[in-house]
Specification:
Layout lengths: L6 E4 L4 H13 L5 E4 L3 H9 L8 E4 L2 E4 L2 H14 L6
Parallel strand pairs: 1-2
Antiparallel strand pairs: 1-3, 3-4
């Protein structure tokens, strides 16, 4: 799966997680792509980083942000996208 930009992994069985992930994508003006935790990408991440399981996870290149800190990282993702970084 080619990565076009930052990915936000969320637990799709949790209504709060779905809402928060949609909110993060809206705040980023579409710079972040939502990926459900049941996907292969999310499974690979949670195997490598067990602390990420069941939490919002933002994967932006080599940077991994877990939990509430995702929202602090959203503006930087948008800025990087506006400047042309993070797009492959």
């Amino acid at each position: 799966m080619p990565v076009r930009g930052p990915l936000l992994l969320y637990r799709d069985s949790c209504a709060k997680c779905r809402f928060l992930s949609r909110l993060a994508v809206a705040v980023s003006l579409g710079a972040i792509e939502r990926v459900p935790a049941s996907s292969a990408v999310a499974g690979a991440i949670t195997q490598q980083v067990p602390a990420a399981q069941g939490k919002l996870v933002l994967l932006d290149g080599a940077r991994l942000v877990i939990g509430r800190r995702v929202f602090a990282a959203v503006p930087w993702c948008r800025l990087r996208r506006m400047m042309g970084h993070g797009v492959h």
